[in-house]
Sequence to fold (358 residues):
Amino acid sequence: MKPRIGILTSGGDCPGLNAVLRGVVLAAEKLRWEVLGFRDGFEGLLPPGDFVVLDRAGTEGIMALGGTIIGTTNRGHFIAKVGAGDRAVVATEVITDARKVLENLGVKSLIIVGGDGSMTTALQLQEGGIDCIGVPKTIDNDLEATAMTFGFDSAVATVVDALDRLHTTATSHKRVMVVEVMGRHAGWIALHGGIAGGADIILVPEIPFDYDKIAEAIGKRDAEGNLSSLVVVAEGAKPKHGDVVMQPTEAGEYRLGGIGEIVAREISARTKKETRCCVLGHLQRGGAPTTLDRILGTRFGVKAVQLINEGHFGSMVSYQNYQVHHVPIADAVNRLRLVAPSSQMVQTARDVEISFGD
Ligand code: F6P
Fold:
């Protein structure tokens, strides 16, 4: 039997996951290894094991597809994340069962493609005797341990496309358009999307805003003869002295969302201008990955196989200075990279007259 490795995709999906799968399969085939793709995240590791053999033929043409061909979930038996900084513990029996499933299948090591929560689980599997390699993934681009994650560029491209479209309708109607974007507690999608899409105001979690300042910025634009204003608001943005807006989920938890409508209402009340809100939501997670994300995904997949070959278990692929390196998963988890209010990027935005409502 050929040596076998396993791979799973966990947490929220994002464009570029299939590029990773393809990269892993092609690099593994070169070493004459077989790749098993476990379905629906860690849940595929539950006895008796739910998997598919991934090979060259089965991964042909998948790079251009959004999502993940082996499925994913951000709930189930292995969830080890409650919120930023929290570490929930995966039950020992669940880890022991998963290890036995992998042993029975002859799978020597496991590649886990996921975000911060999935890396927290990966760490626990590693501690429980399963050799793991992590591949970071999130459209939010908020992991300190890697300068970039695939999926982010595609999400930003969706925001930019939306802003281009909303610009024309906003101008025709002389309206203010508020666009709510994802990103959890980090403002990267809003900042990059807003700058590239020509937003006039960008509201990010890292810079609490003031409704009067937003109205002031819009008033100034009106006085200068502009017909419309575009406001990008990150789902995790909050007013000074206020809190983030959350919505209850069907699972009895809470997720960020809803600030866009509130911002639109407050702008309308202060400026008396027609204001509309557009929530981009999961559009930012779907569709074909951009060129950059296909390349990054491929590089991450190939590197993960290399790390297994070299025995660097317990490490996570990391992108630094245009090169793909690796870092210990233990050093990577629970360390978020946020937008620094004094960063060059924020200053650049201010220099092109973008207001942060502060
Ligand atoms: O972390 C990725 C992300 O898309 C966040 O930007 C967003 O807050 C969250 O996931 C949405 O999660 P769900 O798919 O569970 O609604």
Observations:
- Residues 12, 74, 115, 138-140, 182-184, 235, 255-256, 285 surround 6-O-phosphono-beta-D-fructofuranose (CB under 6 Å).
